[in-house]
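Hi P.,

Sorry for the delay on this. The queue was packed all week, but I finally got your sequence through. Input first:
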Amino acid sequence: MTINTEKLLVLKAFYMGHAVAEKKHNAPVAIDMIDTAVRKLEKSTDEKNKIRLLFYVLLKSEILRETPDVIGLRAQAKETAESIGGNVFDYYMAVEEATQTISKAYGIQKGVIENKGVQTTESYTVSDGFNVWVVSYDAACRALDVNEHRLSEQETNFLHHISLKEMLKKQPRQKNSWVVFGTGKAQSA
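Then the structure:
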């Protein structure tokens, strides 16, 4: 299955950002690398560079998801996405909503009941009357109507094995496309 490049970029920003956010000691270095890329890309009027800029802003937004900084980053991402066109920001927000676990109470007793942070998978129990089993799925993929079991090897490699350092190192060599790293093949954005 080949998925839409916009969805692929959103999933990459989510997975990579979540991974960096979980390892708090890596976050400052990653944010510095992202900020450097953003400063370079902000000056460009090239559409491909705007897409790269949007990716890095979404990535930083995911890393800082649990902080007040996320509001400004999402506003920047939305503005950049609107200037490009397409559905990247809407896809990103669908993933955010699907992976957020804050439960709230409304009415007289308002407040947060539970916050398990960001959940990347969802599970539910299924029974046929005799057997019971647990079904798990990737919440981010499902939010975008992507079946995680049908991703190509290239897509899986890009989403789960290519580091920020590799992306920053290899990306400037490609002028007209977003490279699905590890494959040497480009996909138009």
